[in-house]
Amino acid sequence: MKNPMIIRPFLLAGVAVLAAAAAQADMLRVEAPPALPALAASQGTLKADKVNVRSRPDTKSEVITQLNKGDTVEILGRQGEGKNEWLKIALPAKAKCYVSSKLIADGAVTTDGVNVRCGPGTNFKEVGKLAKGARVEVVAKSGDWTQIKPTASCSGWIAAQFVDVAPAPVQPPEVVTPPVAAVPPAPPAVQVTDVNPDVLVSYVVKNGILKVVADRAKEPAAYELMTEEVGGREYRIAYVESTDKNLAKLVNKPVRVMGNQRWRKGERDPVIVAERIERAW
Length: 281
What we know:
CATH architecture of the domain at 199-279: Beta Barrel
Shape: globular
């Protein structure tokens, strides 16, 4: 019979190696959530009790927390349509989020690309990501995982049928009184260019895949911003208008579009008049 005192140190060393590998995997593995927003940020109010907030737009994904009738949420995007429509929301303060204990110290993240997960383990989906130096509010620590308050990067998904959505308000232009030195004022963050009450105009920054529309004669613009494929399908985020003659180089590539968005009442998708388009990730 082998001496158990000799075997035990090897077992302890093996456990330590596995724990280190798990922490490294949580730092490096990237699982991009299904893409992505077709809404400007707006507010929604729950119209039912015990509504699940999930890690993905899928009834089989993890339940992060529950919301009740009258609760309000910040809506970041949407996916699908009809009874299959989901809303991407900022996680409420009561949601439980976790990070690897080895990747934070004194309430700050010690490395880049740290996943925030909806449970204490790498088998749980990530619901956010933190950069090096980001501050977190620690709730509790248990072994290899630390529970934190949701950060601004944390999001979840909720079935749209349970939410009354209020449209994002259009902010009036900022009125700046120039000083005596007559320095030109900076342009407002939101520029309203259409006084038609049936058209919602706001300044937006959106990510997606740039595509050429299938039938230019029937569409309001030559390009469209699409989500990545989800379950074999992709969804339109917005049409894109641009006078940039070099856009052909960005077709079928991930881009970031910045400019004024026009959303006419009754139309399914808005049109972004692009001021700038650049490669994203």
